[in-house]
């Protein structure tokens, strides 16, 4: 049963990875990547890494792929079919680098795999790969990487906001008017009910004009 | 090992069957599609629609998805710690507080910059 599942997952992973490269439509490529990542989750499960498998499905196959779909939609999607770059230097360099990567992976897999193929495999603890063990390791051996990961997420959040602002996705933060702070929202003036105050109307119409050409549809 | 995953497998199989059957039954039971080209068009008369097929999303989608992933990963890190919280006691709690406070800084920054406002 384990062998059958391994071959299903391995074929699914390879077919998904090939599909990402071969398929013309970027959306189909993303869906193919989802199939690839789900197969990888099954492989993790067969390696007794239950927590990693669950995270693989939730974070990669779920959240990251949604982000990829948005990126494909944002960049243009079907209007821009992927075409190979016609460059003679790339034509030589790309297979060369692919071959180097292949050799490197073969050295890594064969070097460790061949010596272990006749053995029974590692002796695993009963709770191997479960959240308890990972939590214990995060609090003892990998305490510093755990805290650094938090800092890395902080940097990523700041970077995402900065990049979005650079693309004029977000306006400058509004400076609240002193009277607006005193008055609770919703208890509006007549000017508000007529379609916005004087200042707000002038800024809103200016930003609307600049973005309405392409953004309305989104 | 595999028998412990039987409930999960049943769950996945049920999901696949229900989802697949909805996709297939629609074609089997639904009314036959009209062969006329015009019925497939958005409007049978008047001006053609200006909505293009491959329109672009606004950057808000991208930004919200990106921030969602960041805080998703935060939860992924917190889950194993939460399981081990009783075993390690105050030390685990302090480390969790340091972890969460750093991400709270990110959250407040994102919030104050207006990145959570829908544009």
What does this structure look like?
The complex is a heterodimer of chains A (218) and B (119). With 218 residues, chain A is mainly α. Chain A contains nine helices and no strands. Among the domains of chain A are: 80 residues, Four Helix Bundle (Hemerythrin (Met), subunit A) (Up-down Bundle); 37 residues. In chain A, 72% of the residues lie in helices and 0% in strands. In chain A, helix 1 runs antiparallel to helix 2 and helix 2 packs antiparallel against helix 3. Chain A is globular and about 50 Å long. The two termini of chain A are 47 Å apart. Chain B is an all-alpha fold. Chain B folds into two domains: 47 residues, no CATH class; 55 residues. Chain B is 64% helix and 0% strand. Chain B has four helices and no strands. Chain B starts with 5 loop residues before the first helix and ends in a 7-residue tail after the last helix. The chains are: A mainly alpha (218), B mainly alpha (119). At the A-B interface, helix 3, helix 5 and helix 6 of A face helix 2 and helix 4 of B.
State the gist of this model.
Chain A is an all-alpha fold. In chain A, 72% of the residues lie in helices and 0% in strands. Chain A contains nine helices and no strands.
Summary keywords:
heterodimer, A: 218 residues, mainly alpha, Four Helix Bundle (Hemerythrin (Met), subunit A), 9 helices, 72% helix, disordered C terminus, B: 119 residues, 2 domains, 64% helix
| Main pleated-sheet profile of chain B | none
- Provide a count of the helices of chain B: 4
Which quaternary structure do these chains form?
A: heterodimer
N- to C-terminal separation of chain B?
49 Å
Number of strands of chain B: 0
Please specify the SSE layout and strand pairing.
The complex is a heterodimer of chains A (218) and B (119).
Chain A: H1 2-22, H2 26-46, H3 50-75, H4 88-116, H5 131-139, H6 143-166, H7 178-182, H8 190-193, H9 198-215
Helix pairs in contact in A: 1-2, 2-3
Chain B: H1 6-29, H2 59-83, H3 85-88, H4 90-112
Helix pairs in contact in B: 2-4
């Amino acid at each position: 049963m384990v062998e059958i599942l391994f071959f299903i997952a391995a074929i699914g992973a390879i077919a998904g990875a090939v599909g990402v490269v071969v398929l013309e439509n970027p959306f189909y490529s993303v869906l193919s990547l989802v199939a690839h990542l789900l197969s990888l989750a099954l492989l993790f499960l067969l390696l007794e890494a239950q927590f990693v498998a669950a995270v693989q499905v939730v974070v990669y196959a779920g959240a990251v792929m949604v982000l990829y779909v948005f990126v494909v939609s944002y960049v243009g999607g079907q209007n821009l079919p992927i075409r190979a770059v016609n460059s003679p230097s790339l034509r030589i360099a790309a297979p060369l680098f692919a071959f180097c990567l292949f050799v490197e992976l073969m050295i890594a897999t064969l070097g460790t795999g061949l010596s272990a193929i006749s053995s029974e495999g590692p002796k695993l603890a009963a709770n191997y790969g479960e959240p308890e063990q990972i939590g214990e390791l995060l609090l003892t051996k990998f305490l510093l990487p755990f805290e650094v990961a938090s800092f890395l997420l902080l940097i990523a959040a700041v970077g995402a906001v900065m990049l979005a602002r650079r693309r004029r996705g977000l306006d400058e933060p509004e400076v609240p008017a002193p009277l607006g702070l005193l008055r609770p929202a919703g208890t509006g003036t007549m000017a508000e009910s007529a379609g916005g105050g004087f200042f707000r109307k002038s800024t809103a119409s200016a930003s609307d004009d600049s973005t309405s050409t392409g953004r309305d549809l989104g | 090992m595999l028998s412990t995953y039987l409930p999960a497998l049943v769950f996945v199989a049920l999901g696949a069957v229900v989802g697949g059957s909805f996709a297939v039954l629609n074609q089997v039971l639904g009314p036959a599609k009209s062969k006329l080209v015009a019925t497939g068009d958005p409007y049978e008369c008047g001006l053609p629609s200006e909505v293009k097929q491959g329109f672009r999303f606004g950057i808000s989608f991208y930004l919200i998805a990106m921030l969602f992933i960041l805080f998703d990963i935060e939860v992924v890190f917190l889950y194993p710690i939460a399981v081990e919280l009783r075993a390690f006691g105050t030390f685990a709690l302090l480390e969790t507080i340091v972890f969460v406070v750093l991400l709270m800084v990110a959250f407040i920054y994102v919030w104050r910059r207006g990145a959570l406002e829908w544009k």
